[in-house]
Design brief:
Layout: E1 3-10, H1 14-24, E2 30-33, E3 46-50, E4 53-57, E5 64-65, H2 69-80, E6 84-86, E7 94-97, H3 103-109, E8 114-115, E9 122-126, E10 129-134, E11 137-146, H4 150-156, H5 162-169, E12 173-183, E13 192-194, E14 200-205, E15 216-222, H6 224-229, H7 235-250, E16 259-270, E17 279-281, E18 286-288, H8 298-320
Parallel strand pairs: 1-2, 1-11, 2-8, 11-18
Antiparallel strand pairs: 3-4, 5-7, 6-7, 9-10, 10-11, 12-15, 12-16, 13-14, 14-15, 17-18
Helix pairs in contact: 1-8, 4-5
């Protein structure tokens, strides 16, 4: 038995950490569990060594926008802390984490009790409390908030909250193969490439982002259709195919990479739908949040987590008044 908490939050991405941040000032004992090896989620950064030099790739979310006043205030604080900067190449409203996209998530997690590399496998009742089984570890809490991709939430909540599980099961997320490539010399291409058609939906010169330096590095995202075509192929084969697609799409003479890798995001982009907002069942003391309940963006995840925290706080206030 690892311990008893007031609130367990499953998922240490933007939605889960947003909720945890908003709840942290209440004095309750809160713990965040995440199956990842470290901060990032879909804002992950992959660090590798090329010719003896460390290089980082933003192989998940490439940038984010900030339009909601509350989120803009938070982003301004991130900028002041040196973990976010504007990236005009992606648009006037584009921001990136510095020195990697995961810097904002790291910054949020630093002031919270987050347990990385802990996979929540089962959620069930244990008397008056919720029980979260995570391998050999067990966490008990009066309240549980689930902030993971819809497909994962549907499985985790099937026993504990069938209605929530059904809501999650109604969402389909598009996959995305991401290629990370480094070259010995700059490619004769603008810093960003976008396309609504063809096999490559987005490519960016990662090394051109604020706070980055070193080798000529690119991140290439396949379109949902192309990702589905290649979904079960070995990553080395996928990387070579998508690099060829990239050169073909940009009309650039092929160049041999000095580093080439690929990562498969199975749940990269939740399908667009009318915003539902977070869901919190006061009787069950169970809630869910995520970009799939708001809008499929970093800002949508942050807003969903914050709104779930507000719902929890409002219920606490109502129950004591």
């Amino acid at each position: 038995m690892d311990g008893q908490f007031d609130i367990v939050i499953i998922g240490g991405g933007m939605a889960g950490l947003s909720a945890a941040t908003a709840l942290a000032a209440t004095g309750q004992r809160i713990i965040v569990l995440d199956k990842g090896r470290g901060p990032g989620g879909r804002m992950a950064a992959r660090r590798v060594e090329i010719d003896g030099e460390p290089v980082s790739f933003d192989h998940g979310a490439q940038y984010f926008t900030a339009r909601d006043p509350a989120f803009r205030e938070t982003v301004a604080a991130w900028e002041a802390a040196g973990v976010a900067a504007r990236w005009p190449a992606a648009g006037a409203e584009a921001w990136v984490g510095t020195p990697g996209m995961n810097a904002c998530v790291k910054h949020m997690a630093a002031s919270l009790d987050v347990r990385w590399n802990v996979r929540a496998e089962r959620l069930c009742r244990d008397g008056a409390l919720w029980r979260v089984d995570a391998g050999e570890e067990v966490f008990l809490a009066s309240t549980v908030l689930v902030a993971v991709p819809a497909e994962q939430a549907g499985v985790l909540l099937a026993e504990a909250a069938p209605d929530f599980a059904a809501r999650a099961a109604s969402i389909a997320s598009a996959p995305c193969w991401a290629v990370m490539a480094a070259f010995a010399a700059p490619l004769p291409i603008s810093d960003t490439v976008r396309s609504d058609t063809g096999p490559i939906s987005w490519a960016a010169r990662n090394s051109a982002k604020q706070g980055r330096s070193g080798a000529e590095t690119w991140v290439i995202h396949a379109s949902p259709a192309r990702s589905r075509e290649l979904i079960d192929l070995p990553k080395d084969e996928v990387a070579a195919l998508l690099l060829a697609d990239f050169f073909d799409a940009t009309g650039t003479p092929p160049a041999a990479p000095v580093h080439l890798d690929a990562h498969r995001w199975l749940y990269a982009q939740p399908e667009p739908r009318k915003a539902d907002g977070p869901l919190f069942d006061a009787e069950l003391q169970l809630g869910i949040a995520g970009d799939w309940l708001h809008s499929p963006r970093v800002e949508g995840a942050w807003l969903s987590g914050r709104a779930l925290a507000q719902a929890v706080l409002q219920e606490r206030l109502a129950s004591t008044s």
